[in-house]
Amino acid sequence: MQAPGKEGRPILVIQPRRHHHCADCDRSPLRELVLVGGSPLCLDCADLGHLVFLPRGDTALTRRARAASSLSAVVVRFNRRRRRYERQGVFVEEAALAAAEAACLADAEARARRRVRDAERRAAEDVRFTAALAAEILRLFPGCPPARARDIAEHASVRGSGRVGRSAAGRALDEAAVTAAVRASVRHLDTEYDALLMARVPHNRARARVAAAIDAVMSAWAAGRADVSPAEPTPRLPQGPPCTAPGEGGTAHPQARRRHTDAPST
């Protein structure tokens, strides 16, 4: 076996969701297994039984333990919702883990200070970027209220959110990305889009129904006007009693009405 991180791919240990038995010693059920030639092996039969498990969570400790261990393995588990394998931790030699823990303890204070400095630096960067994004929104849409522009910028630029403000185009203040952030805000706050979603209208149909209202707001803002009076208001949700199935009272099925109308008079 090769030492992971030095040559080739890392050794993978799988935490299975179903019961498996070892193809060599017939041990079952296996909490962890290694696939060798398509057959599951327990850690002992795969010559990994002497390693200790280090859960994920401490990046510095994991990195140092793997670097000090001549043999290690990455532990993964399948996430059904995301449909992918995700890391759960690593198996490393016990001596390597002890050495890594000692090294982490020795410079724990320095790493803590570095984390504080990094957090402060990222916070300052976020403040500058949010201000720049708000300024770009006002440049493209001078009719947008300044407070609204700040709200849009703050919402779109939340770190780790995956929103348009955190994309590469958003960080570069690309016009299309900035416009997309404004459009998303108008869709949710200035139209009945959310109400349509609550009424179980498919999102693509809901977007089509509010498109005219969104365009009216954005056109007014782009022209420097804050007051918006859309020519075609967003269609209201249908009111009235819920639909009933044929034969359960209420309005008869259209085909039933047609058959009744077409029936010859006697």
UniProtKB/TrEMBL annotation:
Residues 137-221 form the DUF2293 domain. Residues 227-266 are annotated as: Disordered. Residues 232-244 have a biased composition (Pro residues). It comes from the Bacteria. Pfam families: DUF2293 (PF10056). PANTHER family: DUF2293 DOMAIN-CONTAINING PROTEIN, PTHR38113. This is DUF2293 domain-containing protein. It comes from Streptomyces hundungensis.
